[in-house]
Amino acid sequence: MTLHLVKLCVGVVSIEELARWQSGRLRELRKRRRPLVLTHVTRQTPKRKEELLDGGSLYWVIKGHIAVRQELIDLKPLVRNGVPHCGLVYAPDLVPTVRRFCRPFQGWRYLQGRDAPADANSLKGGGNLPDALKIELAELGLL
């Protein structure tokens, strides 16, 4: 079964801000002639690597709600200041989800595939409404 990770996106107030931050990070990597790979460094290494890399995603919590996800590509061992860490390597594509409340926590948490919020583009109904409005209507149970 597919397994995901949930991580707080501290200091970011919107999906657009996260996209700008990540674009800036990729520009910085390009300027330094380094591989264009987005990596989030975390202290703990997930033990269920195979399940995470079998279609798993990194779900970002923005302002108390799971709001967006990015596909997990790899988990790489890193060492920072002599201390082992884990690099969560993820795809650059941001996929908005139906927002779901999430209490604050430290680090990351596993999220079972069946418990993951649906992608916003999978919402039925709403016709040509903007995605943000579709998400809000879905949260209210109107779509």
Key attributes of the depicted protein:
seven-stranded mixed β-sheet, 3 helices, 7 strands, Archaeosine Trna-guanine Transglycosylase, Chain: A, domain 4, alpha+beta, about 140 residues
List the helices and strands and how they pair.
Blueprint: E1 3-8, H1 15-31, E2 38-42, H2 49-52, E3 57-62, E4 65-80, E5 83-90, E6 95-101, E7 108-112, H3 131-139
Describe this structure in words.
It is a single chain. With 143 residues, the chain is of the alpha+beta class. The protein has a single domain (3-117), classed as Archaeosine Trna-guanine Transglycosylase, Chain: A, domain 4 (Roll). The chain is 21% helix and 37% strand. The chain is built from 3 helices and 7 strands. Strands 1, 2, 3, 4, 5, 6 and 7 form a 7-stranded mixed sheet that branches. The longest helix is centred in the first third of the chain and has 17 residues, at 15-31.
Helix content range: 10-25%
Low-confidence stretches: none
Q: Which CATH first-tier class would you pick?
A: Mainly Beta
Radius of gyration: 16 Å
H/E series: EHEHEEEEEH
CATH topology (level 3) name: Archaeosine Trna-guanine Transglycosylase, Chain: A, domain 4
| Class from helix and strand fractions | alpha+beta
- Average pLDDT taken over every residue: 89
Q: What is the subunit organization of this protein? A: single chain
Counting structural domains, the number is 1
Strand residue percentage = 35-45%
